[in-house]
């Protein structure tokens, strides 16, 4: 009966004092509560932090040295008059006010919006059609996938733009092909009615990247839904629009945002095909091409910086609109 009564704290005090005074065994691990254990833990934590900072250093250098600091300096230049030869002169918002009184600026905005409006849907539609075709168990899939992706690797290069100019010139291969059927082709590059459409066609030809994303998404779709649809007698079009397209909507949204941003920043094809002039009659005067002309042709770097920030804000607005609209058409599996 006496052994069931718990001992008082006073009675247990000598045992606690004895265990603390013993300390770690010689050559063994440090005892709990020892002062060496938190010191080693802090050393390990600091060592891990240094390793993490070393791996993150290239990213920090890139984001600050090549992105944030140049952006901040560009914002400052947009509020100045700067010709690359003399020091910038502060003029406030004069560059931004001058933009809206510049007919060339408004023309470049119109051409760029038209290019984005037609090239992005055409490119995504073509990429989706080819991805669905490749997903039908086609043999030599790797070969066809590489062939269709190759234009995306070469499409932004100067060489391909020069080739495109030669194909669609008055005496180019395309008109020679039409002549076999007795059709006299137009001057696709020199006629302002068709010049922009040749660039839109060049953009659509570079559908390889969104095609690969669509193809990866198609590979992940659950097969049981298609089997259930087949048992219910659903046709191909109904299956595509009610199963494939809704489940693929996250990839559609991703490609839509990515290709819209790329289309706003298109420069090389317009520069090469038009010879840097944006012609004929400014029909291919892309926004970035006019920005380049102002910055490095007319040496109005402050004006060009203001154009760059307007483009940045426009892309941000379009992206925000896409994200707001995504709640209506993007379907996630959960």
What do you see in this structure?
There is one protein chain. With 334 residues, the protein is mostly helical. It has helices at 9-22, 36-77, 94-99, 103-134, 141-154, 158-167, 173-179, 195-205, 208-219, 223-231, 236-247, 249-264, 268-273, 287-297, 301-329; strands spanning 80-81, 89-90. β1 (80-81) and β2 form a beta hairpin. α4 runs parallel beside α9 (208-219) and α4 runs antiparallel to α12. The longest helix has 42 residues, at 36-77.
Overall SS class: mainly alpha
- Straight-line distance between termini: 62 Å
Rg measurement, Å: 32 Å
In which order are the strands of the major sheet placed?
Answer: 1-2
String of helices and strands: HHEEHHHHHHHHHHHHH
Low-confidence stretches: 1-23
Average pLDDT, all residues:
84
Number of distinct beta strands = 2
Strand content: under 5%
Helical content band: 55-70%
**Global shape:** flat
Number of helices: 15
Biggest beta-sheet profile: 2 strands, antiparallel
What topology emerges from the helices and strands here?
Elements: H1 9-22, H2 36-77, E1 80-81, E2 89-90, H3 94-99, H4 103-134, H5 141-154, H6 158-167, H7 173-179, H8 195-205, H9 208-219, H10 223-231, H11 236-247, H12 249-264, H13 268-273, H14 287-297, H15 301-329
